[in-house]
Structures are given as structure tokens and as C-alpha cells.
Amino acid sequence: MPGWPGHLAGQHVDVRLTAEDGYSTQRSYSLAGPSDGEHVELTVQRVPGGEVSPYLTEVMEVGDQVELRGPVGGWFVWEPAAKTPVLLVAGGAGVVPLMAMIRARRTAGSRAPFRLVYSLRDPGQAYYADELRHPDPGLDVTRVYTRTAPDGFARRPGRLTAADLAGSGRPPEYEPDCYVCGPTGFVEKAAELLVSLGHEPGRIRTERFGPTGG
């Protein structure tokens, strides 16, 4: 996108659509990749009956224009110069900004150890499934299925627990930077579990989303 100023992994943009009659609506979407010149990548979850996501995923064509505002956000970000261990906790589409951090780490050749605990309803709901199937060196990925797990999967379906974070996360004594993103209820519970395990609240950064009409 000409004139794009660049961004940090974890930031988002506001996308505004305006109809011919002047009606406009806006939604926020996380940037899905690291800064790459004038290239901007978004991952959009289609919301049935929504105002914005169906247009972006089914109607919009090459050459169509939308209004973007951003990049937005300065707290929920990861910078490649950081060397602190990182624990990423994602719920569903909340993996998008965390994927931007994973990709930024790869692009920068960072050796900061990353762990991703990815909670999703079933295997068919996974974002970036192929990319995360073969993670980079120094990146560990654990999936937690809440409703339906693949055949032979050791963990029974169920919500994220303290045991999941203790076994697949990063011990609090390592003082990792924790990034949690997903629906509001998921984020609040995951942050609560991290604190209960001994993680410093000041090291837990959260980003949440809720129903907006798509």
C-alpha cells in the first residue's frame, strides 16, 4: 500500500467501508505479518450476516479500494530486538497477531525462544495450519481442542486449563513475556490461569475481541 509507514508485530488497522449512499462502517483487524515495505496482510474471519467481513472475503476484488487507519497499538507488540522468552496463548482467530510475531521472529532471525499454546474448537478451525505444522527452530506449538480433537490425540477435548499452560507453556521462573489474544472470556480466563501459575501480571499482555457484527 503506497505510503505505508511500517508497523510492529501485534498492531492492527481500522478498515472502513463506505457505501454509495454515504453509509459507512468500520472494523478492526490485526496485521498478520511483519512490516514488509508497502505490503499489508490481514487475516479476516468471515462472520455470517456481518457488514464488513463478507465483503472483504467474498465480494472485494483486486483494484477495489478501502480506507485504512493505522497502524494502531503500542502495548500489545513484540519487537525483534527483544531476547526475552515469549509465551503466546491464542484462542481461535486470536492467533492472527501472534502469528505476526512468529513471522517477525523468523524474518529477523531472532533466537528468542517462543512457545505457542493454541486453543481451538476443532482441527478444521485452525488458522495457518500448514505453516504451524512445521514450526521454526526455537518455536514450540501445542494445540488444545475444546470440542473435537483429531483421532488419537492424547488430550481429551475441553477448555484451556492451568495444566495445559504449565505443561506446554513457559515456567514463570523464566520470566517470559506473555501475549494472550482471543475472545474476551478466553483472554480473561487465560490471564487468570497464568497469574495463578506465578507469572507476573506486568508481563502478561492481552488483546481481546468480541462480537461486532463482522
TrEMBL record:
PROSITE patterns the UniProt entry points to: FAD_FR (PS51384)
Domain FAD-binding FR-type, residue spans: 1-78
Coiled coil segments of this chain: none
Cofactor(s) needed for function: FAD
Entry-linked CDD domains: FNR_iron_sulfur_binding_3
Keyword Ribosomal protein: no
Keywords noted in UniProt: 2Fe-2S, Iron, Iron-sulfur, Metal-binding
InterPro entries reported in the protein's UniProt record: Cbr1-like_FAD-bd_dom (IPR008333), FAD-bd_FR_type (IPR017927), FNR_nucleotide-bd (IPR039261), MRET (IPR050415), OxRdtase_FAD/NAD-bd (IPR001433), Riboflavin_synthase-like_b-brl (IPR017938)
Pfam families: FAD_binding_6 (PF00970), NAD_binding_1 (PF00175)
UniProt GO molecular function: 2 iron, 2 sulfur cluster binding; oxidoreductase activity
UniProt name for this protein: Oxidoreductase
Protein source organism: Planobispora siamensis
Lineage, highest ranks first: Bacteria, Bacillati, Actinomycetota, Actinomycetes, Streptosporangiales
